[in-house]
Write a structure and sequence with these properties.
heterodimer, A: TIM Barrel, eight-stranded mixed sheet, four-stranded parallel sheet, 14 helices, B: alpha/beta, Rossmann fold, five-stranded parallel sheet, 10 helices, 9 strands
């Protein structure tokens, strides 16, 4: 496994004074001063005790200092659509969102299906990346779902997982072979579970809203049928499976039941599926609410929040999917699926779930940082003396508006424009280096 | 009327009554005169922008505009810059530079009329957006029913056929509901939206449910939208279970169809040729209703338009 970051930045030396330091994996929630030397956490001392001789100081004033976030599901659009995002812009967006590592999906042009493409990305990230970037390799060659990609070469070149995200594997035999090939190199398959025949060209959730609008619906069964097949196949092959962007309550039940039966399964849910429902579409057929899987019902949203709280869903991932404005400025049915999410994930989830009492802060931190790092065997951000500094400082007091024009991302296709939220990122240190500091 | 007519949700019952009264009073008789033209919209520009094949709707809108003396321009998608890769947004921005008063849009995608309304000051009239809505069809259907039945409150209507793919059904469910009619949908499950009952209608899978209705509204089987999917076991089986012919039509029941009809598929040839159907009255009503819609959308908004003009002049000055 390789997760690269530009080595140009200096290792940070600074003192963060009087932060509320919260890292559930370390069993810590305390007001403290955190001393960072040469990119490592040198000491965590009671607030006021930290010594800052000659060091730069950051006055936290009680803001939250958290283990930095890890995103298992981002589309950095490189190579091929650098007009929408590249490694530099995508990782700067990540840093501004409190992320210290992002995993880039391989559905690029060309597809990351061989070591040469992956190596070129690793090299590019060594000079451009503001936070750690890890890459997934594709499951099938050109993501065509016919032949396996060069999975072992990809693993040796640093792939952290395999995925045909965006073009789900429909051939059960191929999927079984992929699990067996991935098992040999110890990597998981990250599966976009969608039976595209059941989905039948739908553009939103199938339900009352699609019935009223006349838009073709994607039934929840398109996801659940595929999740069930994936879990059964993974169990049979004794493979590791990561279910990407779970969108409905029934999928969470299937995952829970497979896990009880001993399957090695992790999964993720996106901030938009936790915060929004299909009802957003009815107001104006805004393509900012068009994503796949689609926004579902309020019952599904509540089930997803409950599954996250219960630990059934262990990770939050953004499915950050940048699109050029001209591609989204078309009638809803013509617009591509996907929204960006790196710069809004924490503020949206903090405001809508934690601040409202629906979800414990500790659960959100575990799901955004510790658990995803473990799922793809990335360095686990930890707030502990001796650990490399992978952390973010967030202000959870002051409200602010989400303004797409302020994004570091090259794209603006957010579902949260204009939202008034709390949880602004003030500072991010990734791999010991200053990745973002709010001006 | 509102500035645009995008959906039947844009109209209240009173507005529907009022627009249809205009159609009845001012425009229905016009077709029977030798000189079929009034100067009402002289100097106004209407652009009919059609991205889908259409004969009756485009003819009806064109004729309606011309009989109101508007300058009518027909833009067919295949004949415009669309084939050259221009986006809908850019096409509309271009057409808007001619300062049209009305853009009538037919488009294969739901919500396209609302989408273009962001890029033009013209009144946008939805002439059918994919499987979304077709509000002027709904208005002419209500008009035809009023001509036949007078008061519509409490009337029972069965909409039969390919409801899933029908924008006409969607507008009519809204419009008929607003007029106080009770709507029943009859179709095999695969040709109904899964949550059809949430639309405030009764749902049935059998023509037996035609019993007791006043109006049978037949829909065209949109076979062009069935490609690559198995909505039905076979067309033959559909016909034997759902084709409505004269023997299904009870005393006093009236049959409507938005056209074009598929003889022998959703409508039996005997019914198509019988006096029980109002299909040609619907076509005739369509012209008067579309004239009324164009006239009222201009007149009802004249004050707002004048205000906008003053602001424009002030901004320029």
């Amino acid at each position: 496994m390789i997760a690269t970051i530009s080595k140009r930045g200096l290792r940070a030396n600074l003192l963060i004074r009087d932060a509320r330091v919260v890292d559930p994996a370390q069993g810590i929630d305390t007001r403290a001063d955190v001393l960072i030397e040469k990119g490592q956490i040198a000491a965590i001392e009671p607030a006021g005790k930290g010594k800052a001789e000659g060091l730069e100081m950051v006055e936290a004033g009680g803001s939250l200092l958290l283990p930095g976030f890890v995103d298992l599901h981002a589309h950095l659009r490189t190579p091929g659509r650098e007009d929408e995002e590249d490694i530099a812009s995508g990782t700067r967006a990540a840093a501004a969102g409190g992320y210290v590592a992002v995993c880039a999906m391989p559905n690029t042009d060309p597809v990351v299906d061989n070591a040469a493409v992956l190596q070129s990305l690793v090299e590019a990230s060594e000079s451009e990346a503001a936070v750690r970037v890890a890459f997934l390799g594709s499951i099938s060659r050109a993501q065509e779902g016919v032949h396996l990609s060069d999975m072992w070469d990809l693993a040796h070149a640093g792939a952290v997982a395999f995925s045909d995200d965006g073009r789900p594997v429909s051939d059960g035999g191929l999927l079984l072979s992929a699990f067996e090939a991935a098992r040999l190199v110890g990597l998981p398959l990250s599966l976009h579970c969608e039976d595209t025949d059941i989905a039948g060209g739908g553009v939103m959730n199938e339900g009352e809203v699609s019935a009223r609008l006349g838009l073709a619906g994607i039934p929840a069964a398109a996801e659940t049928a595929s999740v069930a097949a994936a879990l059964e196949t993974a169990a049979y092959a004794a493979g590791r499976v990561h279910i990407a962007h779970v969108s409905c309550g029934r999928s969470a039940q299937l995952i829970e039941s497979a896990r009880r039966a001993g399957a090695q399964v992790t999964c993720e849910v996106t901030p938009h599926h936790l915060a929004l429902t299909e009802s957003k579409i009815e107001a104006g057929l805004d393509s900012s609410f068009k994503m796949n899987p689609p926004l579902r019902t309020e019952a599904d949203r509540q089930a997803l929040v409950a599954a996250l709280a219960a630990g059934t869903i262990d990770c939050v991932a953004t499915d950050h999917a940048p699109h050029a404005s001209q591609e989204k400025e078309v009638p809803f049915e013509e617009a591509p699926f996907g929204v960006i999410g790196l710069e809004t994930a924490f503020p949206v989830l903090y405001s809508r779930l934690v601040d409202t009492g629906e979800l414990a802060l500790e659960t959100l931190i575990m799901a955004m940082s510790t658990n995803p790092a473990r799922a793809f065997a990335l360095p686990v951000p930890a707030l502990a003396a001796g650990a490399e500094a992978n952390l973010t400082l967030v202000d959870t007091e002051e409200e602010f508006d989400i303004v797409p024009d302020d994004f570091k991302s090259k794209s603006r296709n957010t579902a949260f424009a204009g939202w008034r939220v709390k949880g602004r990122v003030l500072l991010t240190l990734a791999a010991g280096r200053l990745a973002y500091r709010r001006p | 009327m509102n500035w645009h007519l995008l959906s039947m949700n844009d109209l209240s019952r009173d507005e529907i009554e009022s627009v249809l009264a205009t159609a009845r009073k001012d425009f229905l008789e016009l077709s029977k005169r030798d000189i079929k033209k009034v100067p009402t919209l002289r100097g106004r520009t209407v652009i009919d922008l059609f991205y889908e094949k259409s004969t009756r709707t485009s003819t009806s809108f064109e004729l309606a505009g011309k009989r109101l003396s508007a300058d009518v321009i027909n833009v067919k998608a295949d004949a415009s810059a669309v084939g050259k890769g221009e986006s809908l947004k850019d096409t509309v921005l271009t057409l808007n530079a001619y300062r049209p008063d009305i853009i009538v849009l037919r488009h294969p995608h739901v919500g396209a009329p609302a989408f273009i309304s962001r890029y033009t000051e013209a009144h946008v009239i939805n002439a059918g957006d994919g499987k979304g809505e077709h509000p002027t069809q709904c208005l002419l259907d209500i008009f035809s029913l009023q001509q036949e039945f007078g008061e519509l409150e409490g009337l029972k209507v069965a909409i039969v056929g390919d409801i899933l793919h029908s924008r006409v059904a969607r507008s009519n469910i809204i419009g008929f509901g607003k007029m106080g009619m009770q709507v029943r949908l009859i179709a095999p499950p695969a040709l109904l939206p899964r949550q059809a009952a949430a639309l405030g209608v009764e749902v049935s899978h059998s023509l037996d449910s035609l019993a007791g209705v006043d109006v049978i509204y037949l829909l065209r089987m949109q076979r062009e939208r069935h490609e690559g999917a198995n909505f039905l076991p076979s067309l033959r089986e559909y016909i034997s279970n759902y084709c409505v012919s004269l023997r299904h039509v009870g005393r006093g029941q009236r049959v409507l169809h938005p056209g074009p009809i598929n003889r022998g598929i959703e409508i039996g040839a005997d019914l198509a040729d019988s006096g029980e159907n109002l299909i040609l009255q619907q076509v005739e009503a369509g012209l008067a209703v579309r004239m009324a819609v164009m006239y009222r959308i201009i007149v009802d908004n004249a004050a707002a338009a004048a205000q906008a003009e003053v602001k424009n002049i002030q901004a320029v000055g």
